[in-house]
Predict the 3D structure of the following.
Amino acid sequence: MHTNLDPNADFRFQSGAVILDDSSKQVKKSKPARTETGLKCEHPGCKYRGSFNRKYDLQRHMAKHTTTAKFQCPLQQCQYSSYRTDKFLLHFRRAHTDEDEGICPLPGCGTGPLPWPLLKLHTRRHHEIDRGSSNVALEAIWKVPDDVCSCPIESCRGILIKVFYMQEHLRAHPYNERIENRHAILVAGYDATSTNIVCPVCRELLDGTSAFSHHLEESHIATDGTHFRMFCESLQRVGRWSLWSVITSAWVPKPFTVVRSVSCSFCSEDFPEWARVDHHIKLLRDYEPLRPHRLAILKLLPYFGAHPIFDDIRSTVYSCRYR
């Protein structure tokens, strides 16, 4: 093998690699304090003594120290506030009941104190007028759905259930547990043994929301329940409106379908695009006997909130003018 290297010559190996930087002199970024159990919050004055396994969880926690509270609990004698929707809703369903009261937080209004469902009904009118308001208490109220309530059984408190699924939820609880909580279940509007709805007016048991709605209209709301029910069913052919949306305004809503008019299937009276419904409004009974029961009815039928019996807590512009 031929080589040009002189075996007696000195040989030195020289690498062509270039040192980009001396890592020993790099400034290391500060990391959150870590204990044997995880990351700790080091914000001055933080009372949280727990730790976080992930950096993301610590960052989310730190937001409470650096973010202005978005939601202020609107109920009396409660100072809770939070910048997170989920935390506010969790607080509300664990700390409060429908019997807790509050005053309208909109400056210049001050309506109240009202039980929570009525306060929510009242402020909904402000939502229409003051959409986009920066009032944090109003924001808090609007975040709580109208058609949910807490399970009345003690072991299940804090669980929000759609009103229309409450009977199904109650049946999932053991019979003995329902009997132990029968008073709370009755206050919520249900019979502990059967889970049927208890009419707040006459105490009759109804096997479901639809049956209760029909019973209420025919026995306590309308002078001619059959006529009134058929009138409301006729309106459903041209739109999806709740029972009282037409009663509150005293007008038939403008159809959004190709159907240009509709007739009452009981009396055959026609309703063109914008038609007065005075004739059918006269089917309503005097509602004063219902007033002591209106809150209990509202909790069982959220759409009942449009009934004129609630005019006294509405903004004037939204009050029913049929009487």
Remarks:
- Residues 86 and 230 are 42 Å apart (CA to CA).
